[in-house]
Fold each of these.
Amino acid sequence: MKKVIINTLLLVAGTILVTACTSGNNSDTNNAGTSSAIPIGIGFAQTSNIALLGQDGVNGVKIAEKYFNDKGGVNGTPIKLVFQDTGGDEQGAINAFQTLINKDRVVGIVGPTLSQQAFSASPIADRAKVPVIGASNTAKGIPEIGDYVARVSAPVSTVAPNAVKAALKQNPNIKRVAVFFAQNDAFNKSETEIFQKAVKDSGLELVTVQKFQTTDTDFQAQATSAINAKPDLVIISGLTADGGNLVRQLRELGYKGAIIGGNGFNTSNIFKVCRASCDGVMLAQAYSPEHPGEINKTFRQAYLSQFKTEPPQFSAQAFAAVQVYVEALQALDKKTKVSTLPLPQLRTELNKQLLTGKYNTPLGEISFTPAGEIVQKDFYVAQIKMEKDGSTGKFALVK
Ligand code: 1QQ
């Protein structure tokens, strides 16, 4: 009796599956463009601690959507951003990417927030032949995930050493360096390698290397060991909440020397974590609100009027990622109307097209290597200046 019911259920399930597949195939012959707007997927962390970073990305893409649609979108067809929250972990990013690919049927994806997530989620898009543009993935090896994976976030190898040079210029007496890194995160492991190499290449002495987890909140043990090694520079590769708390605890324990933070510090959300202790922390950046050029002026103005603060790096990078899709779609559409292309072909053609273009973005002019690595000219170093209230601050450009 039971068996019969199960068989019937299986049959019903089979029918539904077949129906689902058929309708999937049918709609493949239509395409993204015939529905009025062209869907671009956004897979950023909108919840969890990682939202401290992901939120900047969300703000940037929203400004881009309005900016490009106001200018006519893709030769008259608007784009539509489709958001799926990745949360802070790998599984969340995998789920978000699968939904964007299979249910939302986007032409390409911007995301995920962390390199740690990209190493799990971006291969899924790559296998499905869906373009992915990382807008905050800076670890070594991201473009190499596959042919469909590119990034507009310059790698740690290009960005991070600038902070060490700037710190030495500001304080030529630095000799002894303590390095901290979050050992459970792919980006932080990649960044610390670059920092440790920069320290050695600059003839400095690496006096201790301390490890922690991005989920840690108490750093007393590692901070005390590091202080005992008498460093005059501390370099931290962590994310926003852990990195900010580590800075605060180092200062509370009496550390007075210089501090460099890595890319996980690159959001004004860090100010409310380390508060007054953030003051003076130096960090390298792949964007400056002061970058000359019309598109950055417009982007900066839009950001300032909406959020009452200067645009952060992750917002500018996220804007640039959407821009790459829009301009690549425009170029493709001039050759073959994108509304006539079946979705799989549109995704493939879009991927080829985007790798060949040059884009005049808020980051400056960018392009890609054939592997999908960003080619970018200008990099910066900023120093955090906190206000007297101890909770607001800004990234001041170090000239
Ligand atoms: C990475 C990073 C983080 C700081 C992203 C927000 O650079 O994970 O690659």
Amino acid sequence: METIIKKADGNNIDPEVLMQAGDIIKKGGLVAFPTETVYGLGADALNPLASSKIYAAKGRPSDNPLIVHIYRTEDLYKIAENISEDALKLAEEFWPGPLTMIFHKKAIVPYETTGGLDTVAVRMPSDKIAMEFIKAAGGFIAAPSANLSGRPSPTSAAHVIEDMNGRIDMIIDGGIPVIGLESTIVDMTERVPMILRPGYVNGEMIKEVLGRVSYDPAVFCENEVVGKAGLKPKAPGMRYRHYAPKGELVIVRGDRETVTAYIKKGIKNALKEGSRVGVITAEENSKVYSDATVLLDIGSRNREDVIARRLYSVLRECDEKCIDYIYSEDFDTPRMGQAIMNRLIKAAGHNIIEV
Ligand code: AMP
Ligand code: MG
């Protein structure tokens, strides 16, 4: 299939592009589109055949549900049941924005969209192109991230093209998403709203609005005991190895000097073996690792927004540059640290060395 690629400017969106994208969705096709988190791969959420195509294009396991994207809060009532006061408060505070909420689904939402579950995940993105696209496409867009299953989520149109060219009908190129990490997922069917996936909207922010919040214990699991301890993450997508580069990625944690010394020694050994070695490092420390085959500067420790935005690009760069061993510092920054480290730890397959 030939994939149509069209640029769009959020401040002046070409109506022709929106119409074309909307038509493709209404006919059951697939369109990748920008959001403020990462690029999404959209289909008509209420059309089971269209939703099924998403799984095929991504190579995604069929039990991993999609998020339904809407452009106005009133549409939530058409697809979800038992919408609580808490949910309305969170919608009021964080929609449109990077927050996904889980509700009991209405019959109109096909099981192809929810991966067989009786619940549905719903989000209203704030990106202008995303909003207008959802509207033009009929109001209900099922979309996971627009990457091949297992690869890092796409944070540029180039990433989407890399993974999806020839597999989907259209890609809307809207530049670089401002956040760069997937939305926070909160399960509103739990007695106390439960965070299943950390994101830009953190637990503190939710607690400030509701006075309470809980966490899926699997969110904090840093070792590969998730399965062994019977801690099955409630968000099916969190069970899969994800975001992973092809080379072996190790996170090194400890006090700054010991970490640096450990990584420098690792670089030396890897080079001796004839391997290509990369280091994911904060800007402040990048000069220290000048021996590495590839330096992956993720930005200043004082700019966690930049670290979040660059993370997936850096992980993709590991593959582009055919790196065999990748060392990473940890980036436990104040506000988004939990979300950043959650993704990085999964990318490393829980491979963490404490020094
Ligand atoms: P992606 O946007 O690619 O990150 O995929 C959507 C994420 O939402 C995956 O991690 C899913 O497992 C999660 N998700 C979607 N619907 C539900 C649901 N009904 N219950 C729990 N998690 C969900
Ligand atoms: Mg994804």
